[in-house]
Amino acid sequence: MKKRYWNQPKMGLWERVYFIEIARGLGITFGVFFSNMWKWITFRKGALTAYYPEEIRSDYSPNNRGRHVLTLRPNGEAQCISCNMCATACPAYCIEIESAANFADTAHPKSPKRFEIDYSRCIFCGFCVEACPEDAIRMVKDVPDLPSFDRREMGGKIDLLKMWRPTSDPRKQYPAPKVESERTQP
Amino acid sequence: MTQDLLVHVAFMMGSIAFMMGLATVFTWVERKQSAITSDRIGANRCYVRIPFTKIKFVAWGLFHGVADGGKLLLKENFIPNTYDRACYNLAPWLVLAPVLFVFAVIPFGGTLTVGESSYAMQIAPIDAGVLFVLAISGVGILGTMLAGWSSNNKFSLMGAARAASQMISYELTMGVTIISMVITYGALDLNTMVQWQSGLLAGAVPAWGILIQPVAFICFMTAGIAENKRIPFDLPECESELVAGYFTEYTGMKMGVFMLSEFIEIVVLGALITTIFLGGYNLPYLTDAGFIFPGGYTWALPQWSVVMMQVATFGLKTFLVGCFMIQVRWTLPRFRYDQLMAFGWKFMLPLAVLNLVVTVCVRLLVGDHA
């Protein structure tokens, strides 16, 4: 015997005839197809998906934990004091810092000579950001350009990490460096 | 004599090239059309690069079909530990060959005149063309059943059992529908059917079968998609229940032959629907002498250009019918097995029989000139 369910859908006459509903469904899919096709043949993008990795999506959440950045002092140097706290907090052990000493600058005698994040290992947990006592490392919403044929090329070098020049971010005020005009936005 | 041979060989080569080529194009159409329908971009990474340069031709992903073919040819030819090796190896060809055979009786153009002699553009002008189509397309079931039976795999066996019951059920609907079309046209020959459709209804509308017999068109299209084992009738190979159905145990190009025959079947079914319901190679108002529009305006054309336009019309109609079938695939979900059977026996078959009865009555009342 056929089992009856309490939420058995009740079909009207139109649904019971079935072919008319199929025609309606075909109308919907053909409508989507032709509207998208019209966008393509008039040289617009008729898709919601992005060409990855050529295209950078614009709709990342502002809270997205993406690429790391090193904040800078007004003189263009990294704010990092190479205390190694981020590398200690890192659960994936992917941060590597090599310090450099500059005793002439008495306020900041230590600075990172080499600051590398191995993006083939990074799990984007954000612990390094929380651990930092100097607000020297942050995460921005866009993701690093990860895909590569060689894992040795997947490290974020200090050049990449220092390429962040926010001009207006109401939540995170940042002193704009004076040498801004010489540098380019990533 | 030599000329006859050359022309017929050209017809055969052209037909096979048409089927294979269009089947390959349909693999691309299936990807791209589904992508565009669901707001995606679709396969677009395969390219052909001119050697020693950086010039790449992506061609909207058309080369993906070529890459697939190459991949299938280079795959390991895995053979399961089956007790029936001969049937296992025979099955793919038993699926592919009937599909190719059916195209032999389909007229893809009008009359080609070379020098003194004229040729009907059809590989085999058989008087009982429709019967040939039904007989040969019925053989395809054998290949499917053999594949499932000889694979020594439960999934394959279940797929084959489903395929057999489904294809036999829907073959009935298809046959009854074709009988009603035969009664309408008064001919078993496909070429006569196409010539019947070259006339005009009420002096303006082309007398295509779809306008005279819309119900038969819907029945035939549905039964055809079911015969082809495409979604929503893809129970024999449904990925979510049976791994790949009756060709689970096939690898490499053997599996490729199953896939290819499925896509060739789209082409053949499109050609059949075009021939029986959409006026075949007829372009509206185009006769052998050129265009004759309803207003009395005529435009004479040389014979070769008329033939070329007829062949192009046939190809375009076949392509559009195939695109429609692909769109049906991306619109409807798969039937449940009991729904499939109920739909076939309780809805499609009575509808086709009713259509047949109405056709016969109309034919008796109206007489020969429908």
Keywords for this entry:
heterodimer; A: 186 residues; alpha+beta; Alpha-Beta Plaits; 3-stranded antiparallel sheet; two-stranded antiparallel ribbon; 5 strands; elongated; disordered C terminus; B: 370 residues; mainly alpha; 11 helices; 61% helix; 6% strand
Please describe what this structure looks like.
Helices cover 23% and strands 13% of the residues of chain A. Chain A is an alpha+beta fold and 186 residues long. In chain A, strands 2-3-5 form a 3-stranded antiparallel beta sheet. A two-stranded antiparallel sheet of chain A has the order 1-4. Chain A is elongated, with a radius of gyration of 26 Å. The N and C termini of chain A lie far apart (68 Å). With 370 residues, chain B is mainly alpha-helical. In chain B, the strands form 4 sheets. Chain B has a 3-stranded antiparallel beta sheet, with no helix packed on it. In chain B, helix 8 packs antiparallel against helix 11 (337-366). The mean pLDDT of chain B is 85. Chain B contains 11 helices and 9 strands. Chain B has helices at 2-37, 64-74, 85-102, 129-150, 154-185, 190-196, 209-212, 214-227, 252-277, 303-329, 337-366, and strands spanning 48-49, 56-57, 111-114, 117-120, 200-201, 205-206, 286-287, 290-292, 298-300. The A-B interface holds A 18-19, 22, 25-26, 28-30, 32-33, 36-37, 40, 46-49, 51 and B 33, 35-41, 218, 327-328, 330-332, 347.
Give the SSE map.
The complex is a heterodimer of chains A (186) and B (370).
Chain A: H1 13-17, H2 19-41, E1 68-70, H3 85-89, E2 95-101, E3 110-118, H4 127-131, E4 137-139, E5 155-156, H5 158-161
Antiparallel strand pairs in A: 1-4, 2-3, 3-5
Chain B: H1 2-37, E1 48-49, E2 56-57, H2 64-74, H3 85-102, E3 111-114, E4 117-120, H4 129-150, H5 154-185, H6 190-196, E5 200-201, E6 205-206, H7 209-212, H8 214-227, H9 252-277, E7 286-287, E8 290-292, E9 298-300, H10 303-329, H11 337-366
Antiparallel strand pairs in B: 1-2, 3-4, 5-6, 7-8, 8-9
Helix pairs in contact in B: 1-9, 1-10, 2-9, 3-4, 3-9, 4-5, 5-8, 5-11, 8-9, 8-11, 9-10
